[in-house]
Design brief:
Elements: H1 9-19, H2 30-35, E1 42-47, H3 51-67, E2 70-75, H4 78-90, E3 97-101, H5 105-110, H6 118-121, H7 138-145, E4 146-147, E5 150-151, E6 153-166, H8 167-172, H9 182-193, E7 201-204, H10 211-218, H11 241-253, H12 266-274, E8 278-284, H13 288-292, E9 303-307, E10 319-326, H14 332-345, H15 351-356, H16 370-375, H17 379-388, H18 400-416, H19 421-438
Parallel strand pairs: 1-2, 7-8
Antiparallel strand pairs: 3-10, 4-5, 6-8, 6-9, 6-10
InterPro entries: Bact_solute-bd_prot1, SBP
Signal peptide: 1-27
Organism: Phyllobacterium phragmitis
């Protein structure tokens, strides 16, 4: 299958150079000057209840003081975020900024709900002279903000799948390092780290029905085992040897997970590790702040971070994250005010305070700082994963939301034992191909790959 994210990196680099204005030292009064025509404006955005959003909320008073622009935000559970935004866009609502997940970019762009940034970068009066699109990790800018050769959003809340583990519990079980492979985790580590009588388990895989089940659980076990959701003809590849091995591995690992794992979202998985109930989780880099906060975690110096384990197909960590884009439905003045906020929230200028407040910046330069690399254990494995990543970890095409619902339903049934791995894979494949057929992927009405 051709590469979803890397295919246009060369074009992206050229576009980034064209879109960025000449780089200069950041002028302290640039934002204030640009914002004067919009003083008193109010812009609206949806945030999640996650560390990156709490970090930007902490910094918001600085933006509002500088600009006189009020940022109204609503905190919404991830599982409801896409639906709430789509309803707002289709009813010409009040959102002026779109929060765009990696897998929503195709849908949002093709429906005309978000505005290409070239509409704003061509206007020097509202564009940071130090915008530097080439300062973002290329993988993130392409994956989270770009579609069809255009950039729509800037990377804001950025994730790499990492192995977080309790080094003290591993040491007590006789291990001086984390498992290098999924096979080691299952066969060597999991039995020694699990004691159901004491409510202690080796691993927790967030698997709540919804996007958490489809992306964070189901898709996570496909690629490392040589599987994939689709083949190059956009037909189901879930009956392949690699896909079946990965899905069966998940079933085998469940005996070393807490009861009710199918109801675990991110918060539950992170809390299980933080409170000592489980020894290992594979979670997004953005949760590092939660796991190091004494108010929410008992781990202390026992917290350690490593890359996700490797499978038979190699080390293929999960990739996830969001961009902030201007909503097409917004009036012109609020579009411009929203663009000012998006630039500020993703800028190199606030990358350090954002990271120190618990966010994960998409800017390369912040992770080159020696003190940042020394202080935050997640930086090295995260940055390494962003050099390569898994381009097709989750398909970005517009049909993904409908397919995600199918995977969530039948992936959950698999885990609960209501259907076999083979039976569930067949059911997902049939329903997925029906969705893609109706969407025009098989009759030439729609391009297969972006």
């Amino acid at each position: 299958m051709r590469n979803f994210l890397y295919a246009s990196l060369s074009a992206l680099a050229l576009m980034a150079g064209a879109a960025s204005l000449p780089s200069t030292a950041f002028a302290e009064d640039w934002l204030e000057t640009a914002a004067k025509p919009f003083e008193g404006s109010e812009i609206n955005v949806i945030f999640l209840d996650r560390p990156g959003y709490r970090a930007i909320i902490e910094l918001l008073p600085e933006f509002e003081k500088k600009t006189g622009i009020k940022v109204n935000y609503e905190i919404v559970p991830y599982e409801n975020t896409r639906e709430k935004q789509v309803l707002n866009f289709t009813s010409n609502g009040d959102l002026t900024i779109a929060l765009v997940d990696l897998v929503w970019i195709g849908e949002f762009a093709e429906n005309g709900w978000i505005t290409p940034i070239e509409e704003f970068t061509s206007d020097a009066s509202i564009t940071d002279p130090n915008l530097k699109l080439d300062g973002f990790f290329p993988l993130l800018l392409e994956a989270f903000g770009s579609w069809g050769g255009k950039t729509y959003g800037l990377p804001f809340d950025n994730y790499s799948g990492l192995l977080f583990y309790n080094s003290c519990q591993l040491k007590e079980a006789g291990f001086d390092k984390p498992p290098a492979t999924w096979d080691e985790l299952l066969k060597d580590y999991a039995p020694k780290l699990t004691d159901a009588g004491k409510n202690r388990y080796a691993f927790a895989l967030q698997s709540r029905r919804g996007e958490t089940q489809s992306a964070d659980s189901f898709m996570r076990v496909l690629w490392p085992f040589g599987g994939s959701l689709l083949n190059k003809e956009f037909k189901s590849n879930l009956m392949s040897e690699g896909s079946q091995k990965g899905l069966q591995f998940r079933q085998d690992l469940m005996k070393f997970m807490p009861p009710g794992i199918v109801s675990y979202d991110h918060a539950e998985a992170v809390n299980a590790l933080a409170q000592g109930q489980v020894s290992m989780i594979t979670e997004w880099s953005a949760f590092y702040g939660t796991l190091t906060d004494p108010a929410t975690s008992k781990l202390g110096d026992c917290l350690a971070v490593a890359p996700e384990p490797a499978g038979p197909a190699g080390r293929l960590p999960a990739l996830g994250g969001f961009s902030l884009a201007v909503a097409e439905q917004a009036p012109d003045d609020l579009k411009k005010a929203s663009w000012l906020f998006i630039q500020w929230a993703t800028s190199e200028e606030i990358a350090r305070p954002y990271v120190e407040a618990g966010g994960v910046s998409g800017r390369m330069s912040i992770y080159e700082q020696p003190d940042i690399k020394a202080k935050y254990k997640f930086v090295e494995p995260m940055v390494a994963s962003w050099q390569k990543g898994v381009p097709e970890f989750r398909p970005r095409f517009p049909a993904w939301p409908a397919i995600s619902e199918v995977i969530a339903e039948w992936g959950t049934k698999m885990m609960l034992g209501e259907v076999s791995v083979e039976g569930g894979a067949k059911e997902i494949g049939t329903r997925m191909e029906d969705i893609l057929g109706k969407e025009g992927y098989y009759d030439g009405k729609r391009e297969l790959l972006q």
